[in-house]
Design a protein that fits this description.
Layout: E1 3-7, H1 11-22, E2 26-31, E3 42-45, H2 48-55, H3 59-64, E4 71-75, E5 81-86, H4 87-90, E6 98-101, H5 102-112, E7 117-120, E8 124-128, E9 131-134, E10 139-141, E11 144-147, H6 154-159, E12 167-179, E13 188-194, E14 197-202, E15 210-217, H7 225-235, H8 243-248, E16 257-264, E17 270-271, E18 274-276, H9 279-282, H10 291-308, H11 313-342, H12 347-362, H13 366-381
Parallel strand pairs: 1-2, 1-11, 2-7, 4-13, 11-18
Antiparallel strand pairs: 3-6, 4-5, 8-9, 9-10, 12-15, 12-16, 13-14, 14-15, 17-18
């Protein structure tokens, strides 16, 4: 059967490798990093993505790795609790949705692809049809090439054009990094909201430390680590709560992450024998809470359509796109709507939001209110019919 190169050992890349092998293809994964990436922030697996994980026989292992965040609270500038609820409601999770660390899921998926060829510490330098030149100098021929290499996809740039054509800045930046758990949080998440900026601090079952996350309204920011940290510090200057102390930890954080909040929008995800999957094709942004689920479902559907078409990409790639397009659009719309609730634009909006949260916490029907709040997330997460997975 066909030899297929996958660029990126991402959630999408490793899941695709699993299903391609299950369907009789021979996948090879090339990954710029020297090993599977550990650590990272917490991610959600929802709706149809849970079905994908279950069909891989990994559902129980995923459940065993859940973060077990018990409560989520909003605090004011003095650290006083404004509202609190259980962790799943706070994170918009329903119907057995699972939250776990990105690194734990990456390791689990990689273990499930034992025997697949991985080429670590390398990347694609050029694509000529199906002849691939690697950055390390090796030249190899494949039948198909799939880009699963994230928001800033190298494969997309080589085949479809420059990033500026497809990556759309939503007007916000995001940063996350490890910090000492100086508040002694035990599987808790705290959120502080200021005008144009939000800060979160959380601890999970598997982590003795904590993670700090920052979301703020800003023009897209590039530059080296020092410039990024300066931009973050400037954005939160004068903030209350624990923000100054959290920012002190960023210079020594080994896992400092910074990027614009962006979505990828493309008219098509395939060109000749090359296709894209996951964030490379249709990043919905972290605000959607659906990036991991889109990656798992997209990889599953792409492999299934290749199997159904007997490896004929001229049939499989359009079928993959047709099945995924409305699902992607629903989840990208979720990201666009969510970010406006996550980062409030003015002091008056913050005050009104805090008041509403206090009132909801006092109402006897708050569970019904929260069910209505999370309903759009569940609808978007289940807005696709998965094809059969039989080999």
């Amino acid at each position: 059967m066909k030899n297929i190169l996958i660029s990126g050992a991402s959630m999408a890349g490793t899941t695709l490798a699993y299903w391609l092998r299950e369907h009789g293809f021979t996948p090879t994964v090339v990954e710029r990093a020297t090993e599977v990436r550990e650590g990272g922030y917490k991610v959600d697996i929802r709706g149809a993505a849970l079905d994908v994980v279950e069909r891989m026989g990994l559902l129980e292992k995923v459940r065993a790795l859940r973060t077990d965040v018990r409560t989520g609270s909003v605090v004011d500038g003095e650290g006083r609790q404004v509202a609190s609820m259980d962790g799943d409601s706070f994170g918009g999770r329903v119907h057995q949705d699972a939250e776990l660390h990105r690194g734990d899921l990456a390791r689990l998926l990689h273990e499930a692809t034992d025997g697949v060829e991985y080429v670590f510490g390398d990347s694609i330098a050029a694509i000529d049809g199906t002849r691939v030149t690697f950055a390390g100098g090796l030249v190899r021929d494949f039948d198909l090439v799939i880009g699963a290499d994230g928001l800033h996809s190298n494969t997309r740039a080589l085949v479809f054009g420059p990033e500026e054509r497809f990556v759309h800045d939503m007007g916000y930046n995001v940063s996350i990094f490890s910090v000492p758990n100086h508040l002694g949080l035990d599987r808790e998440e705290l959120t502080y909201v200021g005008p144009g900026r939000t800060a979160l601090l959380y601890s999970t079952r598997q982590d003795t430390g904590a993670k700090a996350m920052f979301l703020w309204a800003a023009a897209r920011k590039t530059g080296d680590r020092a410039e990024q940290q300066q931009a973050l510090a400037e954005a939160y200057r004068g903030s209350g709560w624990e923000v100054p102390r959290l920012l002190e930890a960023m210079t020594g954080a080994p896992d400092f992450y910074f990027d614009s909040m962006s979505q990828v929008r493309m008219d098509t995800w395939h060109a000749g024998p090359v296709a894209l999957v996951g964030d490379a094709a249709y990043c919905a942004s972290p605000a959607s809470g659906q990036g991991t689920s889109l990656a798992l479902v997209g990889a599953y559907v792409l492999a299934a359509e290749l199997k159904r078409a007997g490896g004929d990409h001229t049939i499989a790639f359009p079928a993959y796109e047709a099945r995924m397009r409305s699902f992607v659009e629903a989840n990208q719309a979720l990201g666009t709507a969510n970010i406006k609730r996550m980062v409030l634009s003015s002091r008056s909006q913050v005050r009104l939001s805090m008041l509403m949260l206090r009132l909801v916490g006092l109402l006897p029907g708050k569970d019904r209110i929260m069910a209505k709040v999370v309903a759009p997330i569940h609808r978007a997460a289940t807005a696709i019919d998965l094809p059969a997975c039989s080999p």
